[in-house]
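PROTEIN ENTRY
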Amino acid sequence: MEKRPFVTKDQIAQLVKTIPTPFHIYDEKAMRENVRKIKKAFAWNKGYKEYFAVKANPNPYIIKILHEEGCGCDCSSLTELMLSNALDINGREIMFSSNATPAEEYVYAKKIGATINLDDITHIDFLEKCAGIPEVISCRFNPGGTFQITNGIMDNPGDAKYGMTKPQMFEAFKILKEKGVKEFGIHAFLCSNTLTNLYYPLLAKVLFELAVELHTELGVHIGFINLSGGVGIPYRPEDEANDIEKIAEGVHKVYDEVLVPAGMGDVAIYTEMGRFIMGPYGALVTTAIHEKHTHKEYIGCDACAANLMRPAMYGAYHHITVLGKEDAPCDHVYDVTGSLCENNDKFAIDRALPKIDMGDYIYIHDTGAHGYSMGYNYNGRLRSAEVLLQEDGTMKLIRRAETPKDYFATFDFSDILSKMDYNI
């Protein structure tokens, strides 16, 4: 699959007159079309709902757009709950899936009516004491062991910190039913960034069969089953993209095979596809500002791992296009780096690219999810701006870049930095 930028060099050259690089930019039209495609694929399920994983991209402009397309919010912290509620997204439009959760977060989640997804059986007592048990609740399942597709091991849930064992799920549902819960949900996240149409259907089979057992043995009402996230995107050009229609068809088939015969054909299906929804529709745009010729050829950018940490943290691949040179031969090999005092601050290592000249705009693909949101301030580096390419082709600033004043703002209780000079 060829990867092409959704903006041109000329568009970026015009934009940087008012918003300098680096910045993350998002494609509104493409993200809306993607959500509509997902909803259409799962339309066979009357109660289907996508809960966008706020952690993937916690920009209120993005969340508002996705909410207009029918998405709820999957939140995992107090600030994500606050953000969603401020956008008038609350009640059962929020799934609160957290772990090692502070009491005040449960209190707030219950206050705004979010559906709480308990990570552990011990959290029942904790929740009851700090906020009370709601009538609708979900529990997170971890089957342990390894999760396999055909002969390949996809991931190792047994090593994950999330979720309850099967015996704990039965005990939790029994306790919660006794405490007045009327409607239950089941949630699981077993694999990350999968590139196979089989993941959701296989996960669905595991959860559907568990749901039937819980319903049959305990007499509980299972209202929804949340397949969570894990549906990946093709970061590399040679990767084959997932087909959401085939994925939904696979889940539908298992639904009809397992739930419908058990009299559970009214169970709603939920998903939380942050990466699949937003990943391909964002990019980090940075400028080449230095070149270095030592033991290797280096290109230094005005962005760094503080703007996109996945390559440094995971060794993750992000494709790179030099804007204006999309069709030029990739006859140079570079390490593309940032300015952090860390040797892993590299967007690409030994990457074949066209000749890069100082001032070239470097477009780093697929940063729409877990790009800006994983940013940090190491070395005192500041977070970048975010820009929206609107449906009409115009550009809109949806988050300004941080300033030194923002960085030092948490010392506002003290006069220790009273001589700070912000006139730079």
About this structure: The chain has a mean pLDDT of 95. The chain has two domains: 28-278, 280-411. Residues 199-218 form the longest helix (20 residues). The CA atoms of residues 72 and 93 lie 5 Å apart.
